[in-house]
Amino acid sequence: MTATATPPADAAALAALIDHTLLKPDATAAELRRWCDEAREHRFCSVCVNPVNVATVAAALEGSGVKTCSVVGFPLGAALPEIKAAETAAAVRDGADEIDMVINIGALKDGQLDAVRDDIAAVRAACRGQVLKVIIETCLLTDEEKRTACRLAVEAGADFVKTSTGFSTGGATVADIALMREVVGPALGVKASGGVRSWDAAQALIAAGATRIGASSGVALVTGAPAAKSGY
């Protein structure tokens, strides 16, 4: 995976970078089916859901080429490493191709860097080769803490660093994407998530170094339809 210097020129190219995301706690079976249908239609990269919905989504997407993505330790990152690892193993068992985990944010801010690295490594080991994205929750960190979190993710074997859960005080910014890309270099993916609701916003984030976009408004991003004012 390398940095994307030039934003996608058309809707199909952008769609291929989108994790079509449905993480709200009241997501229904009908909504999950709709998300999967939309992902098939627009050829999104993945559908990202809570672990309890992985098996349903993986079955609905079978044969489509669209991946199934699960979050872990979401949205606070405050679960024990062994719980995150178990959650990861269960999601992989149920068909998850990709895992988006939240780091132990408090441990990072306390300078407990070995604990943060070990937390990521526990999930990495449970992934069994699936793609691992590490959510650092940029809105809660200083720039130096963001750099440290990115370095720890690299050291622990992550495939991506990711800005946000979309459930805290802020989402993806161009400045944060540029900072993260600078730290991880060209080899790792960088995922922008939280508050990405327009073509122009997605293009700016990709130009800054994002190689994946997480959004609940994926259809709006690729069709130009109005996006919801709230949501991931």
UniProtKB/TrEMBL annotation:
It comes from the Bacteria. It is found in: Cytoplasm. Its main location: cytoplasm. Pfam families: DeoC. The keyword Membrane does not apply. Gene3D superfamilies: Aldolase class I (3.20.20.70). The keyword Cytoplasm applies. CDD domains: DeoC. Pathway: Carbohydrate degradation; 2-deoxy-D-ribose 1-phosphate degradation; D-glyceraldehyde 3-phosphate and acetaldehyde from 2-deoxy-alpha-D-ribose 1-phosphate: step 2/2. The active site is at D100, K162, K191. Its EC number is 4.1.2.4. It catalyses: 2-deoxy-D-ribose 5-phosphate = D-glyceraldehyde 3-phosphate + acetaldehyde. GO terms for molecular function: deoxyribose-phosphate aldolase activity. Keywords: Cytoplasm, Lyase, Schiff base. SMART domains: DeoC. Catalyzes a reversible aldol reaction between acetaldehyde and D-glyceraldehyde 3-phosphate to generate 2-deoxy-D-ribose 5-phosphate. Belongs to the DeoC/FbaB aldolase family. DeoC type 1 subfamily. This is Deoxyribose-phosphate aldolase. It comes from Roseomonas elaeocarpi. The lineage of its organism: Bacteria, Pseudomonadati, Pseudomonadota, Alphaproteobacteria, Acetobacterales. The gene is deoC.
